[in-house]
Amino acid sequence: MGTTHPKQQDLSGLRIPVTKVFATHDGVARLGDVMRNRPLLPPHTRWVEIKGGNHSQFGHYGHQLLDGDPSVSRGAQQAIVAQALLDALKPN
User: Fold this and answer.
1) What H or E segment, with its residue span, contains residue 2?
2) Buried (b) or exposed (e) across 54-76, using 16+ Cβ within 10 A?
3) What pLDDT, in 10s, does the model give residues 52-84?
4) Predicted TM-score (pTM) above 0.85
5) 7: in domain
6) Of 3, 48, 53, 65, which alpha carbon lies 20 to 30 A from 80's?
7) Helix, strand, or coil here: 65?
């Protein structure tokens, strides 16, 4: 979540469930970079987009240099992240 990883390693052959959480106003893990690395993840990857979320709101560590301004509250963004993590951990 909140990363552009994988960057060089091709994980597209993984057979385990994969979830990628990203935010549209993330100025650190920019949307274009996230999407550029999409082919390195398996085709079955579950993509969770946080519209209006930014990098800093994935945590509580203050504003990150170059980060975008959020248009969603920290609480709303973190609720989406929490639900995505819970969904990813559910047994198949």
Assistant:
1) none
2) bbbbbeeeeebeebbebebeeee
3) 999 999 998 889 999 999 999 999 999 999 999
4) yes
5) no
6) 65
7) coil
Q: Which amino acid is at 6?
A: P
Reduced to 3 states, what is the DSSP secondary structure of residue 18?
Answer: coil
Kindly state the tokens that stand for 7: 């960057």
Q: What backbone phi and psi angles, to 5 degrees, belong to 6? A: -75, 150
Kindly state the tokens that stand for 52: 């209006």
**Residues of the domain holding 40:** 19-89
Given phi > 0 = left and psi -120 to 50 = alpha, else beta, which region is 2?
left
- The DSSP call for residue 56 is G
| 87: CB partners within 8 A, 6+ apart | 19, 46
34 within some domain? yes
